[in-house]
Sequence to fold (246 residues):
Amino acid sequence: MAQAKAIEAPPVEGGNNATDRCPMIDFVNLVSGKWAIPILYRLIVTGCPIRFGELQRAVAPITQKELTRQLRLFEHRGLVYRKVYAEMPPRVEYEITPMGRTLRGTLDSLADWMRVNASHLIT
Amino acid sequence: MAQAKAIEAPPVEGGNNATDRCPMIDFVNLVSGKWAIPILYRLIVTGCPIRFGELQRAVAPITQKELTRQLRLFEHRGLVYRKVYAEMPPRVEYEITPMGRTLRGTLDSLADWMRVNASHLIT
DNA sequence: CGGCATCCCCGCAGATACTG
DNA sequence: CAGTATCTGCGGGGATGCCG
Fold:
């Protein structure tokens, strides 16, 4: 099931893109960076549209630049919706997409593991 | 470093150590870097001692330097055993620890998600 | 308020060569 | 074969300032 015989990667026909290896590499490429997972997880547990500023406070101390960058990446990859309201002052809301939501179980598991083992790990 | 201020850390009951924030941040700190998760996962699915060279081939195309660095980090954190044989030529074997092994379910889930969704994701 | 633009630092990570 | 040393770059990501 979750086996990965990476070494002798069977030659995939056609111009398969870079996702021919271990799925872990794909995952790291997808959520690389210090803030990607925390942002995603926040959007998932929130579950409803959330404003930029509120999100930033929730994932503090991230900078606006980085939060914007990551959100744009997620939007481009179909993990996050972005909704702009033509108001004054401006309002922008972000929300996890159904596909993004399917990460919930995995990320919960991850968070649980971390909560259990954080105290045993040397920093 | 990423210390800054604990903006609005909700008071957690009991003795509260350095891991007072979102466990996701701890996780990213633990396995930051391009190769950490692939290496760890490889050691987990292998399940038995594996030589340095073989591990490197399995997680190709990682460099020796990076593989050494990550393995040392994992060893220091109690996720990986390191066993040196006084032979000629030298032989060093690495193995996942029981604590590291407990990550299996989480990482399997992660890999499964990636396999399912890789094709839907814009690179 | 959201989000570009700019400047800049530092550490991940690659390439290469050398040692026991 | 495993590991170290050195050089190098690239980009993540922080700080600040301006604009609609």
User: Anything to note?
Assistant: The helical segments of chain A are 23-30, 36-46, 52-58, 64-76, 98-101, 104-117. The longest strand of chain A covers residues 80-85. The radius of gyration of chain A is 17 Å. Chain A touches chain B through 52 residues (CB under 8 Å).
